[in-house]
Amino acid sequence: MSGNKPLPVVSVQPSRGLVDEKFQVTVQNLLPGEEVTLHALIQSEDGDSWEAFAHYVSDAAGAVKVAEDASVGGSYQGTEPMGLLWSMKPVPGSRTGLRLRKKDVCTPMVVQISVYRGHISHGFRETPALACAVAERWYMAPGVRRVDIEEKGVRGTLFLPPGPGPFPGVLDMWGGGGGLVEYRSALLASHGYVSMALEYMTPKTMPSGKDSYVGHQYFETAFAVLRDHPQVCSDRVAMLGLSFGTSVALAMAVYSSLIEPSCLVCVSGSHVQPVKGSLSDVFAEINKNVHRTRYDEEKRVIWRDLLLPIPSDPTKKVDVGKIRCPLLLIVGEDDQNWPASESAEDMEKMMKEAGNSHLLTTLSYPGAGHLIEPPYTPHFRSSNFMVAQTKEKVVVLWGGETKAHAHAQEHSWQRTLAFLEQHLYSSGDKLDRSNL
User: Fold this and answer.
1) Of 55, 191, 229, 370, catalytic
2) Which of 57, 135, 165, 228 could form a disulfide with 12 if both were Cys (CB 3.0 to 4.6 A apart)?
């Protein structure tokens, strides 16, 4: 208490939740019409600090409700319930080219939210806060299990929902940066899917050095490992790919006689690649066009032209007219890394001519860039990138405008979950979700 007046208090509800779950941020015990700044801070596992801030004016009751009130300045403006997360940027003075990604999905992302008197835009570390609250943001729901996979030459991580199952499965593949990325798979398991994050572009999965990549058999084996798991419903397995993962998913669905996915989700990718070629063949084709690389005024790499123009030669692109399962395409119209929009238009034309366009759903987002991730993840217009085949470090321009990209991430994730629900849980007999 300050005299007879209660001290300001900030609350976050729920204080512990999944990263795709909205929270409510409220400040109380302010003066009516008082100007305040809300500030959100995250420290990454690499020790980098990320922040967002917004200016508010309290209502007649001396309260600020972020879900209902408009920010009048700061990292975002307007009524944006989750703006304190999706508008985050590295704090001033940080290293260049940073990207906020969760590495250890068994621990939460911890967000500190503070309220300051007045409308301020800097000096948050030096300025005393009126009140603070902490929220935990998790990729793994209670009961989800993480299991390392090294089976039949396949490497990855399996995430299992709570309960005996069986559950539908999702084979989760990321892009050309290589490495093992787990957070999307952990979140899918939190929604009731046995999800396997597949490792396929690392030294451990390259058979004979940097110029040799795993072949189709690797992905067929990975699909079989997931499909045959005792907690997976073997006839309800999807493939999800982002960027280069989309190339793999489309090729496997069309040309492999051993992979029959129940549905496909393809994010920010293309069908342009040598027909039935290995990863080595795909990269060889891309490298032929490396002279088409562009750079913006900040010397950031733009790779979208490497696959343009979309070829008319049928041997240069996956015959998507042969796709036999539902396909969800997610496209950012400001993608500066892949020609996702042009590819989607050509795929739609090919599928219409083949008579299977009824299987295609396209979500196209103006102002969205390449890295369309789970919702409320900060937008990265550019970031450092390690080229898997050369180990060269560059700064890549991904594209996108922050607010439009944030909308795309939230909307496309909701539609992705609905798409998987429709084609994996709602086909045939309803599976038991009572343990989720």
Assistant:
1) 370
2) 135
Tell me the backbone φ, ψ of residue 254, rounded to 5 degrees: -90, -45
Q: Which of 335, 379, 382, 383 is catalytic?
A: 335
Domain total in the chain: 2
Last residue in a domain, options 116, 138, 160: 138
Please name the residue ranges forming H helices in 180-330: 183-190, 216-227, 244-255, 279-288
Q: What is the pLDDT of residue 128?
A: 95
Judge contact between 252 and 239, C-beta under 8 A: yes
Please say whether the beta carbons of 199 and 130 come within 8 A. no
pLDDT score recorded for residue 430: 46
Let me know if 321 is exposed, middle or buried by CB neighbors in 10 A (0-12, 13-18, 19+): middle
The Cα 335–Cα 175 span in angstroms is: 14
Q: Which residue has the tokens 């060889």?
A: 284
The answer to whether 261 touches 237, Cβ cutoff 8 Å, is yes
What the block records as the tokens of 111 is: 């967000």
Task: Check: CB of residue 82 under 8 Å from CB of residue 60.
Answer: no
Decide if 432 is inside a domain: no
Domain ends where: 138, 164, 189?
A: 138
Is 2 within a domain?
no
Check 58, 71, 243, 383 and give the catalytic one: 243
pLDDT at position 266 is: 98
Structural tokens at position 85: 């997360």
Packing angle of the helix pair 216-227, 244-255 (nearest 10 deg)? 80
In a domain, 382, yes or no: yes
Phi, psi of 169 (to 5 degrees): -115, 155
Catalytic residue flag (residue 370): yes
For each successive 10 residues of the chain (436 residues), what is the average pLDDT?
76 97 97 97 96 98 97 98 97 93 96 97 95 97 96 95 94 84 97 96 57 76 96 97 94 93 97 80 79 91 94 94 97 97 98 97 98 96 80 90 98 98 73 50
335 is catalytic: yes
Partners of 39 in beta bridges: 53, 114
Please state, in angstroms and rounded to a whole number, the distance separating the CA atoms of residues 308 and 305: 5
Q: Which domain holds residue 58?
A: 9-138
Same-domain pairing of 369 and 415: yes
